[in-house]
Each structure stands twice: as structure tokens, then as C-alpha cells.
Amino acid sequence: MDAKHPFVRQYIETALWSSNDGSDESGGEPFDENYGEEDLAPKTVEKMRADCEAFFNKAAPILDTIEHLDYEMVAHDFWLTRNGHGAGFWDGDYPEPQAQQLTDLSKKFGERWLYLGDDGLIYQDP
Questions:
Q1: Confidence band (pLDDT; 50, 70, 90) for 1?
Q2: 33 lies in some domain
């Protein structure tokens, strides 16, 4: 799965949309207001691509049991769920027990945060 794969692109889009740039004391603006995928540091793109591929491969047996699945929504929900946002696999868009299985799998990947580096590029921590 390369960085241009729709799953990876949606994951990146969701990360930018749901993360703030820290430009003021309230957290700043969502990254997608002023930045795009081209502003991600190459190592950030590689980490995101690797996480997407690993998640997708581990989730495949679960995903294969869900009818009419939107894989871009899966990428969206992977980012939101792993980072504890108020929406994700668990909020009703997926059948049970798959919703819980996907939630549990996402949580195993741990949280990730985006931040703006001194060089103007966006990095992921850890």
C-alpha cells in the first residue's frame, strides 16, 4: 500500500482535519485549514503509510465479514478510534461484534499526534 492509496490518503486527510496546528493557546486551527498532504514531512508520510498497511492487514479478516464496506470510512475511523475522538468504529456505523473488534485493534496501535515543526513541515509523534 503506497502513500497514494485511497485508504492512506483518507487516513491522512482525517489526521489533518482532526488535528490542530497549535498556533494559539486554544490549540489553533485544524491543519487542513492551512496545510495539506504536501506539508507532511516524508518520515511522517512513511509512518502513516506503514500504520495503515499494518492495520489493514490485521483487520482484513474482520473487514471481510462486513457487507457494503466503505474502505475510506474505515481509514477515517481508524485515525479517530486510535486517538480517542468522539467517533469511530464503536459509534454505530459497523455491526457488532466487528465494531468492537475493530475498536480493540485500533487501540493496540496507540495514539498519534501531529505537530508543526520549526521547518514548517508536519510531524507525527510518536
A1: confident
A2: yes
Residues found in the chain:
126
Which string of DSSP letters, residue by residue, matches 29-93?
Answer: -BHHHH--GGGB-HHHHHHHHHHHHHHHHHHHHHHTTSTT--HHHHHHHHHHHHTT-S-SGGGSS
- Does residue 75 lie in a domain region? yes
The boundaries of the domain holding residue 57 are 6-125
Q: Measure CA 45 to chain center.
A: 11
Number of folded domains in the chain?
1
- For residue 82, being part of any structural domain is answered with yes
Find the distance separating the first CA and the last CA of the chain, reported in whole Å.
21
* Buried b or exposed e, range 67-89, using 16+ CB within 10 angstroms: eeeeeeebbbbbbbbbbeeeebb
pLDDT tops 90 at residue 2 = no
Q: What is the DSSP letter of 122?
A: E
How much of the chain, in percent, has pLDDT values that exceed 70? 100
Is the residue at 1 inside a domain? no
